[in-house]
Amino acid sequence: MADIAVTEQMLASDRAQVVRGFGLRDARFRWLTAAAALLVVIIFAGVIASLIIGSMPSIKQFGFAFLYTEAWNPVTEKFGALAPIYGTIVTSTLAMIIAVPVGIGIAIFLTEICPRPLRRPIGIAIELLAGIPSIIYGIWGLFIFAPAFQSTLQPWLIKVFGDVAFLRDLFAGPPYGIGMFTASLIMSIMILPFISAVTRDVFETVPPMLKEAAYGLGCTTWEVMWRVVLPFARAGVVGGAMLALGRALGETMAVTFVIGNAHHIKESLFAPATTISATIANEFSEATTELYQSSVIELGLILFFITFVVLASAQLMLRALERRAGGVS
Amino acid sequence: MNLRLYRRRKAFNGFFLVLSVLAAGFGLIWLGFILGALFYNGFSSVSLKLFTEMTPAPGAEGGLLNAIAGSLVMSALAVAAGTPLGLLAGTYLAEYGRHTRLAFFVRFINDILLSAPSIVTGLFIYEIIVRSMGHFSAWAGAASLTVIVIPVVVRTTENMLLLVPNGLREAAAALGAPRSSVIRAVTWRAARAGIVTGVLLAIARISGETAPLLFTALNNQFWSTDLNAPIASLPYVIFQFAMSADEGWHKLAWAGALLVTMTVLSLSIVARILESSKRS
Hints:
The structure holds 2 protein chains of 2 kinds. By secondary structure, chain A is mostly helical.
């Protein structure tokens, strides 16, 4: 920073010039950073704009019917998004049903039960699950998990629920190994770390005095967690779960490997199906006609819209929580 | 004292605590299964050939050299473009704009981009680059990875700059340094380890990304350094080879999967060590 050294011999006018130079450079740097920040917004707007423009032909052709039509036929050029939307929602919901309780359980384990020296290593190991790329889950799911599932758990589930009225339909059909249930199971493993990490972090913001007071009244650990910690941390847990849901909805490669890519809606969770992201991954490069391609892009638009709503509400919830935590301390 | 109630509460407590231990075991077991399968299936296929030969035709022998090179080239381009942009944007959020409305909005959008489906990024780049160029290219692949790098770097940069104590900024300002010099010479330097962590995490994130490359960089069976042409990448080759019916291709896919996972996991572990050494 030799350029800042102002010597005494300097005339007042020189000094004013130097200071002006500082001001100019400062303003320039300020605008540079602001422009980079704006770029983030521009990218976001660009994503939306390009998806809307790209899906224009399909929007014009099918209108709102696109959202509730099941047909997906590249030969006759009839496209509808119902099957992929259904697949996306069912697989994500099922993944959440598995991952939320397990994720909260892990957070309870890490904050209450785990011996202190083991907390960091186990926490890191769980978070490593989030670091493993989606394609690795895909190849593992296809070659290891699906065959194992097909020969063990799946026939058992079909047999056990074979006589139960409603569940019989959900767990029906030949055990293919691949299908919606497999995709959901793998997805639940992938989103587990997001839920447990956020939950653990909000659990740690619970004032220890609250917990101590409850223990002082003679509560068991479970009662403290269920009646004191969880209600206090509810907003954060829900926010973390929504964040994980956003991930699950957009999950592509792992699902593409194991869902079976079949454009129909079947009651059974064991049936091959498809999701929005798997359809895009599988079919975009094969989409030769304009209408086909634009229908796939419209699927992308729908996916982006759904994830935007989910992620935005997660953001708002976690933000509000952050402000509250900031206010307390 | 109501002994029955007491016993029931105790049983409940024990039951749920056991469940939460099982939950942790559930998470750890999958990590073990996945890593175990990767080593078991991938290790036998790892040899020098992997790094010296090109991806083979079905039934032939070969390696993954062109895919490894393609991944390195595109990741390097994406990091080179995404790091400065993300660093500047993160600096705006933490320094100049901290409480402005623009910063609030940018933060919100950035966090959405951070978790937005990466396949949509691929569609976006397809629309703006591939369509106008008329063909798939390494540039388009790198661009789609850049879109993924930027939000990661923005988020970590902002977080790390906010950890720098204000006293440092005030001390520099009191010496007469203008704001821009304070940021570049003091806060950036103080947060350097954290910013490097962010870049490492971004590299880890893109080294396994497949979805955005499907219709931007596509694939190339041969050695290519032409950035205007389609280029191979490790994740794409894993996808293609695993989905095929060829036994030799499956082996290469496992070897590639092992390589990618080891890269990603060691990057995130190094990033974690850097981060925790900074905190203490």
